[in-house]
Amino acid sequence: MKRFTFLIICIGLMASMGLFAGGQQSASEAQTTLVYWSMWNQTETQGQVLTQAIRDFEQQNPGVRVQVNWNGREIRQTLQPALDQGVTIDLWDEDLERVILTWGNYALKLDPFFEQSYPTTNNQPYKDVVMGSLLDLARNIAPDGALYAVPYQPFVFNMMYNKSHFQQAGIQQVPRTWAEFMDAMAKLKAAGFEPMTIDNAYMDTLPGYYLARAKGPEWVAQLVSDRTNAMWDDPAVLQMARAFEEMATKGYFSRTVESNVWPAGQQDLAAGTVSMYLNGTWLVNEIMNTTGPDFPWGTFAFPEVPGGVTGRTAANYGSQAFQINKNSAHPELAFKLAVHLTTGRWDEELAKRTFGVPVGGTTDWPVQLADARAIFNSLDTHYPWAGGIQANPEKLPVIIENFTRLIAGRITADQFVNNLKR
Q1: N or C: which end of the chain has fewer CB atoms below 10 A?
Q2: Where are the alpha helices (DSSP H) in 191-228?
Q3: Tell me: the pLDDT tens digits for 193-203?
Q4: In angstroms, rounded to a whole number, what is the distance separating the alpha carbons of residues 127 and 139?
């Protein structure tokens, strides 16, 4: 009996010390778990880098486990129902504007966390080591001016071009004004290049950007929403239409511009048959399989237009962003994870592997986007997508149809304006 009792005591001690597999499992179950719903698929480059970064975070924080739900872009449909049902989710990510405007009511105000330093911020507050223009944008989007998201993977929408073409055409510097832009296209055409292309996915960005330069994005949104159509008589509209009519008349658009269905335009740029394409900095990664890493990438701000109210420091820019659930049981730990993913080694690795823009102020940029760094540093005005021209979904197809015909030389500038007034 005594021997049996002694054996029971020993078994109890061993179990409490975690010497049995069952004891180890209980200890594991007691770990802190963060639940992260991701906008990426695990097979995407972003998903692969984030997987490695999360494993590194777990190693540096023993007792912490990060459970990832790889939603992909379906998160736009799956996240809110899950939050409404009370599913345990500590943090998620998607487009910066979307997380604030769509899911802001579910999110924690993060301002105090941005004031703290972390292992990868070199004893500085987190807000001082990441891109200030994105933090300003996040505040501007939020109704109360607070920070409800952690930006990462920034982008800016500006002119992407082939530097080799510019050099062969004798273009000494990138165009800053519309007159310089037209001069550059004349030189490109004379050198045997098709200066510019666009395709159906981005057709609205050219008139939208021009009008936003001329009158501001708020005015553009009012223009397309004007039920009377009277605003289409504003001289800025005809000025825009005539500017692109001149480009069409002089043969500055690619010969296939009217029939281009995405991604035809960007593939023409990748193949070296076209010199310029208005798009986002994500384009480098999107067509890397075609261009290879040695393509002579250049970026410049959309030119200033005559009499314009906004200039080259205005652009559509943004990022993806992490957001933390206001009901999270571990908000400090969730923010620490977001910092780990957006600074130091993993910010650099994500930029390097995706040929994208880093969010950290001291992180090296991919050589393909070296020119974009100065653009980011100069930004002071945010455009909505396509300069605000998408504000009225009912009018948008009419704008796209007639602008496509305009740059293909099918209609004149005056006809364009008249068609938009109907």
Answers
A1: N
A2: 205-215, 217-225
A3: 999 999 999 99
A4: 12
Which CATH architecture describes the domain 156-316+382-420? 3-Layer(aba) Sandwich (3.40)
The tens digit of pLDDT for each residue in 31-70 reads 999 999 999 999 999 999 999 999 999 999 999 999 999 9
Residues 406/244, Cβ–Cβ less than 8 Å: yes
H or E segment and range at residue 299: strand 297-300
The gap from C-alpha 148 to its chain's centroid, in whole angstroms, comes to: 17
CA dist., res. 274 & res. 95, Å (int): 30
> What rounded mean pLDDT belongs to the chain?
92
* 28-154+319-370 maps to CATH 3.40.190.10: yes
Break the chain into its structural domains and give their ranges.
Answer: 28-154+319-370, 156-316+382-420
Contacts of 371 (CB under 8 A, 6+ apart): 174, 297, 298, 299, 300
The answer to whether residue 333 scores a pLDDT higher than 60 is: yes
Q: In angstroms, what CA-CA distances link 326 with 107, 108, 254?
A: 5, 4, 50
Whole-model pTM? 0.84
